[in-house]
Amino acid sequence: DQDIGPSLKSLAGKGSGRATVALAAYLAKIWLCEGEAHSVFGPYLSTLPWAPAYASTMQQHTLWWTEAQVATLQGTDAYDDVNAIRKEVNRAVSLLRDVLAPPVRTALARRGDLTGALSPEDAIESAVRAAFVAILSRSFQELGDGDSPARLVPLLDLLQHDAEPNVSHQRVWDAESGEEIALCTARNDLPAGTELFNCYGNFPAHVFFSRFGFVPAAPDDEQEDNERPLLEDLLRAG
C-alpha cells in the first residue's frame, strides 16, 4: 500500500502479533478510504462486521462490549482472556491513529465524509476495532506451515465450524498466476448440496467465546465443563 505500506512493513517485523496489527490497519484503511463501493475488495468488505449494531443479528464479539458487560464474565476463564484481548486492541488503536490519519483525512476531504457524525479519529478507532473483530473471528494462521501470519481468506470465511470438518486447506503457489493461494479440498466424497465445514481450532469453550463469539455444542461426555452453561447464557443475553 503506497500510503501506509512502509509503516506497516516496519511494524510487522517487530515482535509477535505485529503482523495482525498491520493487517487490521490495512483493512481499516481500505474501508475508510475506499469503502464498499470503490474498493476491489468491496464485495468481501460488505460481509464484514463494521459496527456494533451488527452484533444484534450476526456477529457477537466482546471487543464491542461495555465494561459492565465484561464484568459479568468475572469468575470464568473468559474474563482474563477477554480483558487481555481488549487491552491489546486498545494499544493497537493508539499506535495506528497516527499511521492512518493522513490517508483517511485526505480521502474524507476528497470524497466527502464517509463516516457520518464521527470525527476522523473516532472513525479510525471504530474501523480498527471492527477490523480486529473480523480478523479474530475469521482469519487463519496456519495455511501450510506454522509460521504464517494471520490472513483473511474469503472462501474459508464462509464456512461454519465443526470439530470434525469435511474440508481441509493449505497454502500453495498457483503455477499459472505465480501467486500464493488457499487450496480448499474435501476430506471425503461429498454429495451435491452438502454444507462444507471447517475446524476453527481445538480450543476451550472460553477461547471460542472470546475469539469467535459463540460456544460450540459439547459432546454428552463433556457436559461436566461448568463454564459452558454460564458462557452460553451470557452469549444469549448479548
Could you give a short description of this structure?
The chain is 48% helix and 8% strand. The protein has helices at residues 5-12, 18-33, 35-38, 42-45, 67-71, 77-111, 120-138, 154-157, 205-212, 227-237, and strands at residues 160-161, 167-173, 180-186, 197-198. Strand 2 (167-173) and strand 3 (180-186) form a beta hairpin.
Structural write-up:
The chain has 10 helices and 4 strands. The protein has helices at 5-12, 18-33, 35-38, 42-45, 67-71, 77-111, 120-138, 154-157, 205-212, 227-237, and strands at 160-161, 167-173, 180-186, 197-198. A two-stranded parallel ribbon has the order 1-4. Strand 2 and strand 3 form a beta hairpin. Helix 6 (77-111) packs parallel to helix 9 (205-212). The radius of gyration is 19 Å and the shape is globular. The two termini are 37 Å apart.
Helix and strand sequence: HHHHHHHHEEEEHH
**Largest sheet, strands/sense/barrel:** 2 strands, parallel
- The mean pLDDT is 82
Structural class: mainly alpha
Described by the principal axes of the CA atoms, the overall outline is globular
- What are the low-pLDDT stretches, counting only 5+ consecutive residues below 50? none
Number of strands: 4
Query: In percent, how much strand structure appears in the residues?
Result: 5-15%
Q: How widely separated are the two ends?
A: 37 Å
Separate helix tally: 10
Please give the radius of gyration in angstroms: 19 Å
Which SSEs are present, and which pair or pack?
Blueprint lengths: L4 H8 L5 H16 L1 H4 L3 H4 L21 H5 L5 H35 L8 H19 L15 H4 L2 E2 L5 E7 L6 E7 L10 E2 L6 H8 L14 H11 L1
Parallel strand pairs: 1-4
Antiparallel strand pairs: 2-3
Helix pairs in contact: 1-2, 2-6, 2-7, 6-7, 6-9
